[in-house]
Amino acid sequence: MLDVDAQRLSPAGGRAYRRGGGRPADPRRPLIIAGAFAAAIVLGVAIGLATAPADTPTPRTAPTAAPPAELQPPLEPSAWEGSRQPGTAHQMRVRPVDRRALGASLAYALQEAGAAGLTADNVVIPQGKLFYGAVEGVDSAADEYWAVGLAQVTGVTAAPPNPQVWKRVGNGPWKRIAQGARACDGLPTGLFTAWQGRPPLCSGA
């Protein structure tokens, strides 16, 4: 015989009973279940919002200003182009455009350090106080150009310590890379041979 869970009314028209259990059916049960389900949904949404990662924008790097064009004067044709020996040092002729480029490079470096308004006109490299040389690379793009000199700077509160050392790679811009009493320590030693000794101005005088 099948045990059918059918509802029936009591003879007095009272609560409904289910066969086999003998317990009255609670008419509020569907409402309780629906309320619990809605509460679970609200709780889930709240937890999701609380644990969602913050939408933090990616910080942008401030653009770096391009160096002035006068820091990159055209190079003279190299005498070693047809017979390269990487690492070999050469003494170079100082042209007026080279001297101005070195002055502009120093002014640019001082501007980046906070000295506003400086130009190449604020920098004087006296005659006889500049050594210029090159070191061969595997190709023209790897050739290194070096200079060391004494610079007189106007328009600054404190003059930068001498000597100044500059470097240029290939056709790139001149960059002031060292200054002060030990600035010459970073020069390629082959240049001292090309210059017939360590320049006296490396002492800063």
From TrEMBL:
<feature type="region of interest" description="Disordered">
    <location>
        <begin position="1"/>
        <end position="25"/>
    </location>
</feature>
<feature type="transmembrane region" description="Helical">
    <location>
        <begin position="31"/>
        <end position="52"/>
    </location>
</feature>
<protein>
    <submittedName>
        <fullName>Uncharacterized protein</fullName>
    </submittedName>
</protein>
<feature type="compositionally biased region" description="Low complexity">
    <location>
        <begin position="56"/>
        <end position="69"/>
    </location>
</feature>
<keyword id="KW-1133">Transmembrane helix</keyword>
<keyword id="KW-0812">Transmembrane</keyword>
<feature type="region of interest" description="Disordered">
    <location>
        <begin position="56"/>
        <end position="92"/>
    </location>
</feature>
<keyword id="KW-0472">Membrane</keyword>
